[in-house]
From TrEMBL:
Database matches in PANTHER family: MANNOSYL-D-GLYCERATE TRANSPORT/METABOLISM SYSTEM REPRESSOR MNGR-RELATED, MANNOSYL-D-GLYCERATE TRANSPORT_METABOLISM SYSTEM REPRESSOR MNGR-RELATED
InterPro entries (UniProt xref): Bact_HTH_transcr_reg (IPR050679), Tscrpt_reg_HTH_GntR (IPR000524), WH-like_DNA-bd_sf (IPR036388), WH_DNA-bd_sf (IPR036390)
Membrane-spanning ranges: none
Pfam families named in the record: GntR
Keyword Transmembrane: no
Residues covered by the HTH gntR-type domain: 15-83
SUPFAM superfamilies per record: Winged helix' DNA-binding domain
Keywords noted in UniProt: DNA-binding, Transcription, Transcription regulation
Protein name, as recorded: GntR family transcriptional regulator
Protein source organism: Plantactinospora sonchi
Coiled coil residues, start to end: none
């Protein structure tokens, strides 16, 4: 399932919603919606924008942190990691 930056979450799809969100966020980063070392929208904003549970957003963010796409600054937010590390 190839998701683009403007796609929506498809709850009937075989791919889990958190993986769909992770793919969409990655596509948005590649498109340049958020620059390196800049915050992405808050968990609550993503919940509202995509109509999914906060736990789903957290799982997608955790996956992207694990993959080295994002990093979290406690009490500040989630940021795009520079491609060079």
């Amino acid at each position: 399932m190839d998701l683009g930056p403007d796609d929506e979450i498809d709850h009937g799809a075989p791919l889990a919603p958190y993986k769909q969100l992770a793919a969409i966020l990655t596509a948005r980063i590649k498109r340049g919606d958020w620059q390196p070392d800049r915050a992405i929208p808050s968990e609550q904003q993503l919940v509202q924008q995509y109509g999914i549970a906060r736990a789903t957003v957290r799982r997608a963010i955790a996956l992207l942190v694990e993959q080295g796409v994002l990093y979290v600054v406690p009490q500040r937010g989630t940021y795009v990691r520079r491609a060079d590390g």
